Amino acid sequence: MKKSFLATTLMAGLAAASISLAHAADSAAPPPPPPPCGPMHHGHGPGGPGGPVLRLDGVKLTTEQKAKLKQIFTAARPENPKADMEQMHALHHQLREALTTPGPVDQAKLQDLERQISALQAQNALKRLQVEVQVHDILTKEQLKQIADRPEAPPPPPPPPPPAEAGH
């Protein structure tokens, strides 16, 4: 369950990063829309887990910086975000199936599925971090200081408790 939540958070974070950074660049020409979130979108907003570190809201950007941001986001957009999400869904489905099938649990299969899920999550986190580095590189010292001087976003609220079962 924890890994599923992490995967969801990473996917949502990628979308949130694109939205927040793209919103800041919104002036001359709007950046391309972020990849669709799909049914797994339960993530946190900007600044939360998986969200952008360099929140650009309120930072005055030049026309050249806005154009560079658009290029960065266009290049960072996955070729087929639906396929990436479907791959993660398929791995989670296999994990669920292995854990709900009667009989002995195939530990090796579980470990392999977990390794694949972790690899996808790490790959997505690295891609987001690379985008953040590219954004950093186009900002001036003053803009970076403006971002650094802001208080960090508060942690997201805890998830709601599961619904109580009737009759208990």
Automatic annotation (TrEMBL):
Residues 1-24 form the signal peptide. One of its GO terms (molecular function) is unfolded protein binding. Belongs to the CpxP/Spy family. The lineage of its organism: Bacteria, Pseudomonadati, Pseudomonadota, Alphaproteobacteria, Acetobacterales. Its main location: periplasm. The keyword Nucleotide-binding does not apply. Residues 23-52, 142-168 are annotated as: Disordered. It comes from Acetobacter vaccinii. Residues 142-152 have a biased composition (Basic and acidic residues). It is found in: Periplasm. Residues 29-38, 153-168 have a biased composition (Pro residues). Keywords: Periplasm, Signal. Pfam families: LTXXQ. This is Periplasmic heavy metal sensor. One of its GO terms (cellular component) is outer membrane-bounded periplasmic space. The keyword Translocase does not apply.
